[in-house]
Amino acid sequence: MKRKPDRMNQVMLYFSPNELAERWRCSRSSVDRIARRARLSRICLGEGRNGIVRYFREEVVAYEASRRV
Fold this sequence. Notes:
Blueprint: E1 14-15, H1 17-24, H2 28-37, E2 42-45, E3 52-56, H3 57-66
Antiparallel strand pairs: 1-3, 2-3
Helix pairs in contact: 1-2
């Protein structure tokens, strides 16, 4: 029987906006605003309201590091 890969043990390359909202403890609209101001690159899959947006993990981590005080 073929086993599915364990997603929890994989290092994901992207964050969804909802994952960032949870990580940063803010609203989804705040994530969108912060990402736009920080000029974070994103991948848009699909079109319109049903499209999927993902942010590159590497850029998010670098942004967080740049904001440390």
